[in-house]
Design goal:
By secondary structure, the chain is mainly alpha-helical. Helices cover 45% and strands 8% of the residues. The chain has a two-stranded parallel sheet with strand order 1-2. Helix 3 links the parallel strand 1 and strand 2. The two termini are 30 Å apart.
Length: 148
């Protein structure tokens, strides 16, 4: 996220993005973490990027709706989205297989900042039109509200 923020949120644009890491632990934990963080400060918008392979169910969806948290689901995991950016096959693979494929392709886990060199602005721009969650993320990061 910090990498995308650096690519797309221009200083002085009027958009301020605060990124917090829930450190996984399932979709329900991520939504709850976002809710608890939002009680500590006033945010115009709250959004989560989360894996759908654990705790992504009707109860978690309802909690996100009630807390007015925009959810951007990675199905089944972030590694699937990142592999799709590079047009690698993801269909029919489990989360464990996707994490293994990601590590084999990029030489480290998705949480390792050394992978950022594989996700330049040109690469992400090309993928944005193909990958819904990237398009949503881009729209949130570049959203400019005009105060009157």
């Amino acid at each position: 996220m910090l990498h995308l923020k650096g690519l797309y949120v221009q200083r002085g644009s009027g958009v301020v993005v605060t990124i917090k890491n829930a450190r996984g632990k399932g979709a329900a934990h991520v939504v709850d973490f976002a809710f608890r963080q939002s009680r500590n400060a006033a945010y115009d918008m709250k959004a989560t990027l989360l894996d759908t392979d654990s705790d992504w169910n009707d109860k978690t969806r309802a909690a996100a709706r009630k807390a007015k948290i925009h959810v951007m689901p990675c199905q089944p995991c972030l590694e699937a989205v990142l592999l799709t950016v590079h047009r690698a096959p993801v269909e029919g693979r489990t989360t464990a297989q996707l994490k293994q494929a990601f590590s084999a392709r990029f030489g480290s886990a998705a949480s390792d900042t050394s992978i950022l060199r594989h996700f330049s602005r040109d690469v992400v721009d090309e993928a944005r039109s193909r990958i819904t969650v990237l398009s949503e993320l881009f729209n949130l990061l570049t959203r400019v509200e005009i105060e009157t």
